[in-house]
């Protein structure tokens, strides 16, 4: 394969923990699994030990995008005690250095995972020994989906140029924003302050989420600044999928700029993927895109996104 090879990753498989990248979004059908699977393949081919986890707790289908059969083991085996070690749920793929952990089509109750099992799952994900762990999330704003989104180091929000997809992406980011605040407001003893401000949002001139920081700092300067610093660890990487024109590509920059102002958090336009029938043909053949159509524009576009994710964690890149 004509992939860029990268030597000497800073993080090695001998080290516990990994760089967690999550792919989420506000609705289904926006290409989350396509993006997750291909990023995993590219990172593995760059030389990184990579694990990709299908976190769609109701209808996992990531194996299809990877060109693999449904695995006989999945993380449900770990949660039910059939497997003692989470890493034993990881199966090899046709790509060296890429392992895959599936959800389960046979256990719909996982869509309503308990707080206890969610905690166990998140702890197990944190403990994986790999260079990169990629989480492919369910659509929507269920609390378990948001918690998995927030545990990552890189937070990719996928969307299409469709107006409803853009609107749902903002809703998803807003839900993640307030879910993170909820985690820390009690710890910082700000829960009563936040609740009071939000109950009278108009009176308190809270027009967008970023205004909330200013009002909290006004009432509780030290604790408010601490909360703001914590929230700055959350950033969004925008990927706009199925673009058909330059104007639709430029939407990505606009969305990133508006989101940065709206949330007061760093928001980056990570890249775009153009509309291509090659995706449909590759899925029909159960073949990853980079194997079936290695000369498509999508190939270079996904490679660009993968390089962006990988570049901070390299000592040296060799082309």
Give the helices and strands, then pairings.
Layout: E1 5-9, E2 17-24, H1 32-45, E3 50-55, H2 62-66, H3 75-79, E4 91-92, E5 98-101, H4 115-126, E6 129-137, H5 143-150, E7 154-159, H6 163-185, H7 191-199, H8 209-219, H9 221-231, E8 236-243, H10 246-263, E9 267-274, H11 277-284, H12 289-292, H13 297-310, E10 314-318
Parallel strand pairs: 2-6, 2-7, 3-5, 3-6, 7-8, 8-9
Antiparallel strand pairs: 1-10, 4-5
Q: Features of this protein?
A:
319 residues, single chain, two-stranded antiparallel ribbon, disordered N terminus
User: Tell me, what is the CATH class of the largest domain?
Assistant: Alpha Beta
Which regions have little confidence, pLDDT < 50, spanning 5+ residues? 1-16
Estimate nothing, just give the exact number of structural domains: 2
The number of helical segments is: 13
- Main beta-sheet annotation: 8 strands, mixed
Mean pLDDT: 86
Could you tell me how far the N terminus lies from the C terminus, measured between alpha carbons in angstroms? 13 Å
Spell out the helices and strands N to C.
EEHEHHEEHEHEHHHHEHEHHHE
**Computed structural class:** alpha/beta
**What's the CATH topology name of the largest domain?**
Rossmann fold
- What would you give as the CATH superfamily of the largest domain? P-loop containing nucleotide triphosphate hydrolases
Q: Strands across the major sheet, in which order?
A: 4-5-3-6-2-7-8-9
Radius of gyration computed on alpha carbons? 20 Å
**Number of beta-strand segments:** 10
Beta-strand percentage range: 15-25%
**Net shape:** globular
The CATH architecture designation of the largest domain is 3-Layer(aba) Sandwich
Indicate the percent of residues in helices: 40-55%
